[in-house]
Amino acid sequence: MNLILIAMILALLIPIYEACQDDDIWQKMLAFASIATKTSIVILMVSVLRDDWMIGVVAVIILSVGNAGLMLLAHLIKRMSEI
Known about the structure:
By secondary structure, the protein is mainly α. The protein is 90% helix and 0% strand. The protein has 4 helices and no strands. The protein has helices spanning 2-11, 13-21, 25-50, 53-82. Helix 3 (25-50) runs antiparallel to helix 4. The radius of gyration is 15 Å and the shape is flat. The mean pLDDT is 80.
C-alpha cells in the first residue's frame, strides 16, 4: 500500500511541472485543479487505510467543491485582465 501512495504522490509532480512551464492562466488553473483532484484522492486512500470516515468526508468535500471554486477564480482573473 505504501508503494501505491508513493506513486500517487509522484503523479502530483506532473501538473506541478506543467503549471511552472505555462504562462497561460487557463493552463495553470487546470494544472492546479488536477493537483486538487489528485490530492483529494490521496486523502481518500489514507482515510480508507486508517478506517477514518471523518477524513474521507473532508476529501469528498474537497473533491466536489474545490474544483468549482478554482474554475470560478480562473474566470474572474481572465475577465479582470481583459478590462
